[in-house]
Amino acid sequence: MKTIVSILFISIFSFSNQALGALEKINLSIWAMGEEGKKIRIIADQFEKLHPSVQVTTQAIPWSAAHEKIMTSVISEMPPDICQLGTTWMAEFATIGALEPLDQYLGNQLELTENDFFEGPWQTNKVAGKIYGMPWYVDTRVLFYRNDLLEQAQMPLPTTWDELYLTAKNLKNRNHNMSNKISGIKLSTNDWMEFLIFYWQNEGRLLNDKLTYATIDFQSFKETMLFYKRFFDEELTLKTAPSSLELLLTFRDGSIPMFISGPWMISEILNKLPDLKGNWKVAPLFGHKNHKSFVGGSNLVTFKNSKQKPWALRFLSFINTPEIQAKWYTLTNDLPAVKKAWDQEELKNNWYLDAFHKQLENTQSPPPHPSWEQMASLIAKIQEKIILNKITMEDGHRQLEQDINLILAQNKSSAQSITFKFIVFSGFGLSIILLLAWFFRQTDKNFKTQAISPTHAVLFLLPALVILVIFLFIPIFFTIIISFTDWNIYSLNDLTNLTFIGFNNYTQLLQTDMVFWRSVLNTIIFVIVGVPLTITVSLVTALILNIGVLKCKSLFRIGYFIPVITTMVVAAVIWRWMYNANYGSINIALKLFGLNTQDWLNNEYLALPSLIIMAVWKNFGYSMIIFLAGLNTIPYSLYEAAYMDGVKGIHRLWYITIPMLKSSTLFVTITTVIGYFQFFAEPYIMTEGGPNNATNSIVLYTYNHAFKFYNLGYASSISIILFIITLLVSAGQLWYSKRIET
Amino acid sequence: MTHLTLNIRKKSLLYLLLLFGLLLTLFPFLWMISTSFKPENEIFQKTINLLPASFTFEHYLKLFKEINFGKHFINSLIVSLGITGFSVVINSMAAYAFAKIDFPQRNRLFLLLLITMMVPMQTTMIPSFYILKKMGLLNTFSGLIIPAGASVYGIFLIRQFMFSIPNSLIEAARIDGCSEWYIFWKIIIPLSRPILATITIFTFLSAWNEFLFPLIILREEAKYTLPLALATLNGQFNTDWGLLMAGSVVVIIPVIIVFLLVQKHYIKGLTAGSVKG
Questions:
Q1: Three-state SS at A731
Q2: Boundaries of every domain in chain B
Q3: From A73, A439, A637, residue closest to B112, measured CB to CB
Q4: What are A436-490's pLDDT values in tens digits?
Q5: What's the farthest any 2 CA atoms get from each other in chain A?
Q6: Of the listed ranges A651-660, B2-11, B153-162, the one predicted with least confidence
Q7: A583 close contact with B: CB closer than 8 A
């Protein structure tokens, strides 16, 4: 007994000692994305060894939601000490006012200066004349090509635009025995990055130096666009860009012999297409007036709210020493941004690195404007419209300039006094209370005073109501208020900058925002077609399972429920493959029956129906389960009685089963309608709203405005409109079902 | 019983139809399983082969090497079971009040709840985040469990079902002097088994798969749930398909187990004969 006590005592003591030790250490928190977030632990361990007083905590953030994660941490004033930021995100977070400017530390606390880095990557850290981060690793785009096919077509490696065109043309026209369409090069109708590379090579500019207005020179825009569009018009490239998986496949079989991509593609090809060895190469990009390429990658930043700035700076210096950068390369294949790192042993004598090294001397990055994401999506949109001949060159150019200027005009609005805001805020509170009072205005006629006291009801309801009020009603209340403000990137970090702008968001939305109206239309089509389809399929399946099938019932039940369980990402992979234009199973089946094949997801008219079918597949299992539970409440005696009365077959279904399922059906219909109005996951993962907004939905549009463009005020007003539409439809539904009853 | 069964020809046709449907719904699932056992070079084929030419466990081994699987699995289990248990109790209590207790403004209050379902959670997420921060619940499992404790969807579903429980049964119990508590636990809950099984599956499923909310609430990798940990394995531009599929298989298994555990309650429901119309 004594020993146990003493062991316990010692272990508690040593534990608390450890805890104390941990408390004494300086804690440096680092966030990095995906693979980098995992591998940085190794660098952090090395740093800890050098500085035993520091404990580094690293956190890997999934790429798919990194933006959302960092954004909420900034809003809540709880950022990490060091964070990885994509180069195109620098301007956003610098403008929010979250990042610590590093100019004052350069050359002293930060043992690095501008000259240590390649120019292009360095420039990505500069926002409004200040340096906000350190380049960490770089990504620049080069040309990947099949040297065997180029030889076969007797074409040299293209170095100019004319040569590029000729090579692509000859590659397209070469002899082949492939069943699928072949092309000369891969270009995209809606990839702004690819278009910008050409535009920059033609000395094109997007914005003036102060980033206050668009300066898109029509002549160079037109020249570039004509050249770019020619590849599509002459079918030297496919109008539908392949997914990353398809790109690898087509590169292997040679149907896409050239494409522009970044360093990550090297390890992809090496690992996944080992049989292609010797038949592919990389080269710096061709050129026109210059040989520029796009530069991206990631920088490391520290935040104003960081409590460990000196240590953060020390870590930044440490990670950018040539030795660590070279080590980082061996860990991750990320290309170093530090020039000297390229002289290290690890990066020498590497046949594919040369192209990147050369290209790095000649790069450009997008203008460092906080709303760049929004502009980029505009460029992609116009690019697509011009290529698909939806709009003329002149109109496209005019519209692009106009829309970009509209974004640039958005700025810090005049400050409103706190008292004014308080009055507006309480006004909102008061009107909500009045609204609620009106809602519950008269005594309930249905309520019959009975023996049971209503206090029981309160007890049963209380836990649910408390949670709903705190986590649903109050957030909704704030969403309503936010929808009347200009809460955007300029007030994100400092709510005192928030301005009430009345109905401005709503008028802009309803009067001028065509994308919004398109997404409303798409959502309504999705509901009108998708809801009846889903309910019919699920009801029929449930009925068959319930009446006709006695054996293997649970196998069928779980089988049909499997799509609901299957993660959206996996479902998306397989459905994209099934819808693939070249070798998707749907088109193969159509060919068997001698029918025309379609490019399902890239056709403006077919994309939405394709997503509807997928949504029905994914969701019908939900309602089926509810119908099955409902069918179980129908007493068997009812059927027996009906049988005695001579009711058989389909009549039994019609007169007993369906009416008895009334409450399940009402539930399924209402929740499916509400759920389908919030159409989001399918377009978010499958099409990103494209082609040409044909699958954009209201919630996807809201999401993009909130988390991509930081227009939280605008996003809130979109969701309030969605709320009103859903409310009207559901009210109509309830009214209709009541009318049928009486 | 005989009069409700179909003849052999009709029946085999029905089974054929059901099997065809089953193939359609299961296909992606089976493909996912087979891909998770395929070596890398086999994944990159133009045709989809359901049977791998050679089996490999490399993706699973890599998965268990790259992430601390046990820890994230337990985190997920705590959060999902916490949410499921908590919310099934709270929601069925509220549903009982809405379905079987008369109180003033009952229907209007319920309508108000229904209306709140129409606001997408994507917009209420940031205010909710603020509230959790003020309550000091960031980076805690409670911060994930408590907000999910009540859901209008759940209340609505259970309430609809409870309507089918005859009032006479409850009134008889009240006359016998049973307390509302007793009626709820001893009569209502046992009779609601099919729907509680349903809501258990739904709640567990959505809690288990939830991604964005846990990501912004949890601020330590050690607390990550399984979907978060798996998502960190994806690159910015490239995806390791074999690893992704292995991860997806592993994530789905617990949901299937829960489904199999609770599904027997569909069969034992009201049909067991305790209540007749």
A1: helix
A2: 1-56, 58-272
A3: A439
A4: 888 887 665 555 555 456 677 788 999 999 999 999 999 999 899 889 888 877 7
A5: 96
A6: B2-11
A7: yes
Domains of chain A in sequence order:
21-140+297-364 (3.40.190.10), 142-295+370-409 (3.40.190.10), 513-741 (1.10.3720.10)
Q: Would you call A81 exposed, middle or buried from its count of C-beta atoms within 10 A (0-12, 13-18, 19+)?
A: buried
- The CA distance from A493 to A478, in Å, is 17
DSSP classification of residue A241: P
Could you tell me if A330 lies within 8 Å of chain B, comparing CB atoms? no
Q: What is the spatial distance between Cα A339 and Cα A360, in angstroms, rounded to a whole number?
A: 10
A695 touches chain B (CB under 8 A): no
Q: Which alpha helices (H) appear in A646-711, and where do they start and end?
A: 649-652, 658-660, 662-677, 681-686, 698-703
pLDDT in tens, B98-144: 998 888 888 889 988 988 888 888 888 888 888 888 898 988 999 99
Q: Under an 8 A CB cutoff, do A439 and B228 touch?
A: no
DSSP characters for A91-123?
Answer: HHHHHHT-BPP-GGGBTTTB---GGGB-HHHHH
Give dist(CA A250, CA A149) in Å, integer.
13
Query: Scanning every residue of chain A, which has its alpha carbon at the shortest distance from the alpha carbon of B213?
Result: A69
Evaluate if pTM is beyond 0.90: no
- Residue A402: is it exposed, middle or buried by C-beta count within 10 angstroms (0-12/13-18/19+)? exposed
CA distance A741 to A734: 11
A99-121 pLDDT, tens digit each: 999 999 988 888 888 888 998 89
DSSP string, A437-496: HHHT-S--TTPPP-SS-THHHHHHHHHHHHHHIIIIIHHHHHHHHHTTB--STTTSS-GG
Pick from A562, A706, A723: which is nearest to B29 by CB?
Answer: A562
ipTM of the assembly? 0.89
Give me the residue from A65, A271, A663 closest to B160, CB to CB: A663
- The CATH number that domain B58-272 falls under is 1.10.3720.10
